[in-house]
Write a structure and sequence with these properties.
alpha/beta, Peroxisomal Thiolase, Chain A, domain 1, five-stranded mixed β-sheet, globular, binds oxa(dethia)-CoA
């Protein structure tokens, strides 16, 4: 049976750190509130000139290096992002140019915070259908350029970064065992950026009304996320005839430590088996899972044969999981 397996990972975060104490000087908030309500202590902020493809490029180079591959050996490039370089073309094409991955097809996947797992699911389907044998999947975001720095309910949450994986076809009994993707568009307005698209094209008016910034009804999103993620994980385990205790590591989207803890509690997973790095990076949307996965791989938290579960919930609404036998 043909599967896809992750043969390498890479990640990159910008150097500039913005701490909760820095935010105290910008909006009416406190380190105590942010830490208690989110678990975030600091986040990385891209430089003025940096775009999503620049972060994606660094993460991809690291993954290629780990794999010992040249960019021209990549057949497909998928970039999950909602903060791409520009509306047109796809950030994946700009990344392809930077990498000189001349043989690859390239396109973006927009599923907000679930974007990386969506892209992984697309790559997995292409590999299993024998369309491509080697795919680069990247999550890259610079949400801080779409953050309203006067809105304390959102500006304390987001950070910038990128993570990449390289998938390869394998006949071995390991790799991605299942990838589930789900959406409910009826709640799209819980988390959205109203301006800059064809609904409200960029104008002086849209800028004056701050429509090009991310709007989120956080508390409602929070409650739906916790409920949905429990069901998603239970379904994924059941589909694969596994129990919670079979999992070596859960790598959740890093939106809020309370969501992560509540999810782990509901499925009876000890928190030591959950990869958490949002204290250092905040919510990096589609980049959060590949960032955390790369860290887990590089610090030796992931071993051959381990069952690893990735899960995410985000704007759309979208949610997704991927079960991997490493
Ligand atoms: O990544 C994709 C999906 N995203 C998520 O899953 C995010 C989900 N949401 C969350 O993480 C949380 O809802 C937040 C961290 C955004 C907010 O935490 P909360 O516990 O849901 O707080 P809340 O929105 O109910 O607000 C509680 C209070 C409010 O004051 P009042 O109305 O009770 O007086 C807010 O105005 O906290 C206030 N508040 C703040 N206070 C200090 C909101 N933001 C801040 C802030 N500093 N930064």
């Amino acid at each position: 049976m043909l599967r896809s397996k992750i043969i390498a990972t890479g990640s990159y975060v910008p150097e500039k750190v913005l701490t909760n104490f820095d935010l105290e000087k910008m909006v009416e908030t406190s380190d105590e509130w942010i830490t208690e309500r989110t678990g975030i202590k600091e986040r990385r902020i891209a430089e003025g000139k940096q775009a999503a493809s620049d972060l994606a490029f660094e993460a991809s180079k690291a993954a290629l290096k780990m794999a010992g591959l040249k960019a021209k050996e990549i057949e497909l490039i998928l970039v999950a992002t909602v903060s791409g370089d520009m509306p047109l073309p796809a950030t994946a094409c700009i990344l392809q140019d930077k990498l000189e991955a001349k043989k690859a097809a390239a396109f973006d996947v927009n599923a907000a915070c679930s974007g990386f797992i969506y892209a992984l699911a697309v790559a997995d389907a292409f590999i299993r259908s024998r369309s491509y044998r080697r795919v680069l999947v990247v999550g890259a975001e610079i949400l801080t350029k779409f953050t309203d720095w006067e809105d304390r309910t959102t500006c304390v949450l987001f950070g910038d970064g990128a993570g990449a994986v390289i998938l390869e076809a394998t006949e071995e009994d390991r790799g991605i065992l299942s990838a589930r993707i789900h959406s409910d568009g009826s709640m799209w307005d819980l988390l959205h950026t109203p301006g800059g698209g064809s609904r409200n094209p960029a104008s002086k008016e849209t800028v004056r009304k701050r429509l090009h910034y991310i709007k989120m009804r956080g508390n409602e999103t929070f409650k739906i996320a916790v409920r949905t993620l429990e069901g998603l994980i239970r379904d994924t385990l059941k589909e694969n005839k596994l129990k919670t205790s079979d999992l070596a590591l859960l790598i959740p989207h890093q939106a809020n430590l309370r969501i992560i803890q509540a999810t782990a509690r509901r499925i009876d997973l000890p928190i030591e088996k959950v990869m958490v790095n949002l204290d250092r990076y905040g919510n990096t949307s589609a980049a959060s899972i590949p960032l955390a996965l790369d860290e887990a791989v590089r610090i030796g938290k992931v071993r051959r044969g381990d069952y690893i579960l990735l899960e995410a919930f985000g704007g759309g609404l979208t949610w997704a999981s991927a079960l991997i036998k490493w």
